From TrEMBL:
Keywords: Cell cycle, Cell division, Cell membrane, Membrane, Transmembrane, Transmembrane helix. One of its GO terms (biological process) is FtsZ-dependent cytokinesis. This is Cell division protein FtsA. Belongs to the FtsA/MreB family. Cell division protein that is involved in the assembly of the Z ring. May serve as a membrane anchor for the Z ring. It is a peripheral membrane protein. It holds the Pfam family FtsA. HAMAP family: FtsA. It comes from the Bacteria. Its main location: membrane. It comes from Vannielia litorea. Residues 24-225 form the SHS2 domain. It is found in: Cell membrane.
């Protein structure tokens, strides 16, 4: 745990140095596309030291001055499986964004969707030596949280304090300066597979870039697609990407659960390609132009030309009805949504005061998806787009860029995490088995 704590603190220092220089790049490494945005931080004092525990810690204003996307190569299920191909794709996106911005960037903050994320709920409590809670007390109570034995080959990516309690007063955002005798804390820990992260770190290093931060796509998509009330009252953000579908649950403006389903829009495209015997490129065009999941009486009469260049006239002139296309797409979409519902049930989503679900990501643009999702998930469902940020090109304002925009917000407005506090080396949390993700039923 010591190495992890030191590594995360080093990345935070590197991020602060890059922001002090005024320019940093964010990189969304997805299965279908790689997006790069270059951010410029404005004015003197553009970075302010943390002044609170939570979403307002370390605020700074920024503007997007460069943006580029390229087709992703060498990435499956949100994880790198062909290093050289991914390196070329990242170089292409970063160089194009740098050219548009007119500046060179050396530091990037990256987000990815794979690595099999797993959530844990931790809690800890201490007796206060002084009646007034200090910064050192917050560090001690976070260090007292018992970290579960999440096994070899995994490491922590996020460790957010989501709730503080002084004596019998719970629901505190920042306990510092308040008076009491006993301080308790709840913390959300998100772990991922180490090998996936190491591959991403190595690929970014091969591109002559320094990593100044790392985030889960599930987390940053929620930051950009959920409005403030939804983050406060309790909502789930489902990001339908190309190779994986991520989901995150927020309450009190904190993420308390994250997971991923290793199915996405590319699997729907593959089903169309195999079912209609067309190329993957043609299948993607058909899905985008004519796809849907809810059939109507008109769909039997709407014919879709499949085209082709095989030289066989009968084969190249084939046509299918839109209802046949929906018949291919709907089972896969239902499978994805059923898997999402299973994950939400395991997280205890039904126990939250508000149970709104927001769909985002490129796959969320399939016609009728919100209606089908409402039936399967049994909750209020809406389609979400990323929040507007200054300087963002019009082409990058769609649902497919929720993770990229969320990463901008994460880089400029980071929530305090466990490693943002000076914890003495002799009080690092010890690992032991503990039940996970049941705690927030009692606390919220």
């Amino acid at each position: 745990m010591t190495d992890l704590y030191d590594t995360q603190r080093a990345m935070r220092r590197m991020r602060k140095q890059a922001m002090d220089r005024g320019v940093i790049a964010i990189l969304d490494v997805g299965t279908s596309k790689i997006a790069c945005l270059v951010l410029r931080f404005d004015g003197p004092g553009r970075f302010r030291e943390s002044d609170g525990v939570g979403s307002l810690a370390g605020q700074s204003s920024f503007r997007v001055i460069g943006a580029a996307t390229t087709r992703s190569r060498g990435v499956s299920f949100g994880e790198i499986d062909a290093m050289q191909e991914t390196e070329r794709a990242i170089r292409t996106a970063v160089q194009a964004a740098q050219k548009m911005a007119g500046v060179r960037v050396d530091h990037v903050i990256a987000a990815f969707a794979g690595a099999r994320p797993r959530s844990y709920g931790l809690d800890g409590a201490i007796e206060l030596a002084d009646s007034v809670v200090s910064e050192a007390d917050v560090a001690r109570v976070l260090a007292s949280c018992v970290v579960p034995d999440f096994g070899q080959g995994r490491q922590a990516l996020h460790a957010h304090p989501v709730n503080f309690a002084i004596d019998h007063r719970s629901g505190l955002i920042d306990p510092r300066g308040q008076i009491g005798n006993r301080l308790a804390a709840d913390m959300h820990l998100l772990t991922i597979e180490t090998s996936v992260v190491q591959n991403l770190l190595y690929c970014i290093k091969r591109c002559d870039l320094e990593l100044a931060g790392l985030a889960s796509s599930a987390y940053v998509s929620g930051l950009s697609a959920l409005v403030e009330d939804e983050q406060e009252l309790g909502s789930a953000c489902i990001d339908l990407g190309g190779g994986a579908t991520t989901l995150s649950v927020f309450i009190k403006k904190h993420m308390i659960y994250a997971d991923s389903v290793r199915l996405g829009g590319d699997h729907i495209t593959r089903d169309i390609s195999q079912g209609l015997q067309v190329s993957p490129q043609k299948a993607e065009w058909i899905k985008t132009r004519h796809g849907g999941v809810v059939a109507t009486g008109m769909d039997d009469r709407e014919m879709i030309p499949l085209g082709g260049e095989t030289g066989d006239w009968e084969h190249d002139q084939r046509r299918v009805s839109r209802s046949e296309l929906i018949g291919i797409m709907r089972p896969r979409v239902e499978e994805i949504l059923e898997e999402v519902r299973t994950r939400l049930d395991a997280a205890g989503f039904d126990h939250l005061p508000s149970q709104k679900i927001v769909l985002t990501g490129g796959g969320s643009q399939i016609l009728g998806l919100d209606e089908l999702a409402s039936r399967i998930l049994g909750q209020q469902v809406r389609l979400g787009r990323p929040l507007r940020v200054q300087g963002l090109p019009q082409a990058a304002t769609g649902p497919a860029f929720s993770a990229a925009v969320g990463l901008c917000l994460y880089s400029a407005h980071p929530q305090d995490e466990w490693w943002d506090f000076d914890i003495p080396a002799d009080t690092y949390p010890a690992r032991s088995l503990k039940r996970a993700m049941k705690w927030f039923r009692d606390n919220w």
